[in-house]
Amino acid sequence: MKTGVVLINLGTPASPKAGAIRAYLSEFLSDPRVVEIPSALWKVILNGAVLPLRPAKLAPKYKQIWMEEGSPLLVYGKRLARGVQEQLDQNQVQATVVLAMRYGEPSMQQAFDQLREAGCERILIVPLYPQFAASTTATIFERTLQLHRQARDMPEFRFVKRFHHLPGYLDTLASNVRAYWQSHGKPQQLLLSFHGLPQRSVDQGDPYLSDCMKTAEALQTRLAGEGVPIDIAFQSRFGRAQWLGPSTLSVLQAYPGDNVRHVDVLCPGFVADCLETLEEISIECARAFSQAGGEQFRYIPCLNDDPAWISAMAGLVRQHIAGWPEPNTD
Ligand SMILES: C=CC1=C(C)c2cc3[nH]c(cc4nc(cc5[nH]c(cc1n2)c(C)c5CCC(=O)O)C(CCC(=O)O)=C4C)c(C)c3C=C
Ligand SMILES: [Fe+2]
Ligand SMILES: [Fe+2]
Asked: What is the pLDDT of residue 318?
């Protein structure tokens, strides 16, 4: 019985131009799991203000972070999928690994077509989000079934809900921070910045905040011997509703007033660098910190294509596909 593995991240525009950004944002922000205000009202705001204005503002930002091979989120995703495939092959684990994006390309539909053509009857879905949120992880689960709504014959699915507790994920993050400090020296403060979420989602039972806090505690435990204080904050607020706080920007702007002038920022909720880390944190937040009197701002990169992270992901995949019973094909 053939097994397929789909590693799925959020998605990113096909090019750093306004037209491609508009197409991507339109698909992303039309997902009712992402923006939960009444759909008739949201359609007016999305088509009347967000889609006409935001792409032009984002285009120069995407251009600044674009790599030779494409958008960083996609480039690192491809490297991760290739690395996981190599590790499974080396260990004689028979599975086909593909990368997909929830919005844009390579699409989830393309991934399922590829796995169906390869004859995969079991599919493991791995959202590339360590912490569960309905707006990121659940929408991938839902889309998986939606894309098979017309199917007369379906594969078996397994869904990985989250992996914030995975030792290989936490250990690699902690050892990267330690290695960074060994090469560059320690800061006065380490700030863990997670992507934000509307406060309402958490009040309604989304476990995202709790997952982020558990991740932060596990990193604090691993880095306790270093003597660097650790704070937690939430970035990338979108829209006017109240989002989880404190906001990364406000924390960074307040540090110099409290005599914290050397800060390192790590974004443990992103497994790959992207617009939110390379532009919002490394450029915008760095500038705001300096304008508030900060002296040294350093951004510690995401796990990206780190070999230890690729091994951790391959291990997670192996754990999930081991012991998956052969379906009765009689
Ligand atoms: C890591 C987890 C993420 C959560 C949780 C999340 C929630 C969330 N995001 C938006 C709106 C936007 N996010 C945007 C970019 C973006 N978001 C994530 C991850 C999470 N989002 C990533 C990895 C990226 C980067 C994509 C890239 O191309 O590099 C954007 C687009 C950029 C912008 O316009 O600022 C928006 C919009 C909402 C509303 C939300 C929860 C409700
Ligand atoms: Fe986001
Ligand atoms: Fe952002």
From this structure: 98
